[in-house]
Amino acid sequence: MTRTLDASTDLHTTAKRYLAGGVSSDARRTAGVPLFVDRAAGSRLWDVDGTAYVDYVLGQGPALLGHCPPAVVEAVSAQVARGIVYSAQHAAEVRVAERLCTMIPSAERVRFNTVGSEAVHAALRLARGHTCRPKILKFEGHYHGWLDPVLHSVHPALDLAGPADAPVPVPGTAGQPPAADLVIAPWNDLDALTVLMARHAGEIAAVICEPVLCNTGAIEPLPGYLQGVRELCDRHGSLLIFDEIITGFRLGPGGAQEYLGIAPDLSVFGKAMAGGMQVSALAGRASVMDDISTGKIAHAGTFNSQPVGIAAAEATLRILDEQREEVYGTLYARGRALMAGLREAAAKAGVPMLVHGPGPVFQTYFTREREPSVRNYRDFAATDRARMTLLHAALLDRGVNMVPRGLWFLSTAHTEADIEFTVAAFSDALASLPLG
Ligand SMILES: Cc1ncc(COP(=O)(O)O)c(C=O)c1O
């Protein structure tokens, strides 16, 4: 099947005249015509040419309950009629803050922001101010938003990235200030981290990580690894920050910290917490968050706790919390069924492929390696990423939308029929690829 793209192509031509690069985010740049969506509902998207797609991008993760979940649509519509922006305190944000503190194991206080990058920024400032230390340690391959202090070494060119056990910071873009206060470590290597933390002893305010590395291959921490990271932070007096912008509410009602049983000092949430509306949150131990409470650390924002977003968060979190068995039972069952189906399809086609991740989010790679061989960014970089881009295009042609680098997000709206359809489309897409 080849899609008709006439209306999409026309829009793209006009878009390139008025939008820089024809898109509003670099993540939407593609070699050809980007997806121009007309509408979305449940597990589906429809493009402006009328083609339907089973959607595993889900707005880059937020639509955990599917697109337009009725309870969220209803809550948002009711709030719009009562006021779109207050920039003042209101009752619903207090209720949502209370629920977050009951759902998230390490949360004793929260502050709201609008998007994930902002909440990360707040966490880093708080960590530096609280510890009176300058440096942040981040891991190669981890993404913490597009702001200057952390857009380093996400997917760096390997010839610039330095030794595997002590990577050097590689800027993610032209125009970034030098990364003087950033230490880069390889993921899943406790020996390397031990050495780096000793080398920068007394200087590291915080270690920040995606507790399950979703931006580079849905890579879970090796057994004991995050316990080791926690212990090193405690030994050196550094805070541990979990960036749960993807894992939060996706791996479970208490995020990756509950799923993995490790308590960070601070964590940040966004995406899935508000059913698709833009709400993020910084959460943490009271003894750290008190530096915001007292005004020592500045934190502000016109749109913080914007009532429409908070209404969406309240409706979403009520479902995730009160219907947790059903929600997470469905999410894991569908995710694991799809993973098994894709694995089987690849094996039948004789295509060397690894499918791994927790289930509600997972990754497909073209590689001859077996589990758990993809442990960090450098392993990920050795997989055939160009072939994954071809597979993404072949899947779109067959009505399936995954994240182009091979990441899949599940929602509770995906049905068994969607999974069957997707596995059949995947087999067909694999068969259509040029011999590799
Ligand atoms: C782990 C992680 N942190 C932070 C961000 C930044 O969030 P936002 O795009 O909402 O600013 C993202 C976005 O994809 C993310 O995946």
Automatic annotation (TrEMBL):
Gene3D superfamilies: Aspartate Aminotransferase, domain 1, Type I PLP-dependent aspartate aminotransferase-like (Major domain). Its EC number is 5.4.3.8. InterPro entries: Aminotrans_3, Aminotrans_3_PPA_site, PyrdxlP-dep_Trfase, PyrdxlP-dep_Trfase_major, PyrdxlP-dep_Trfase_small. Its cofactor is pyridoxal 5'-phosphate. It is an enzyme of class 5 (isomerase). The keyword Isomerase applies. Keywords: Isomerase, Pyridoxal phosphate. It holds the Pfam family Aminotran_3. GO terms for molecular function: glutamate-1-semialdehyde 2,1-aminomutase activity; pyridoxal phosphate binding; transaminase activity. It comes from the Bacteria. Belongs to the class-III pyridoxal-phosphate-dependent aminotransferase family. This is Glutamate-1-semialdehyde 2,1-aminomutase.
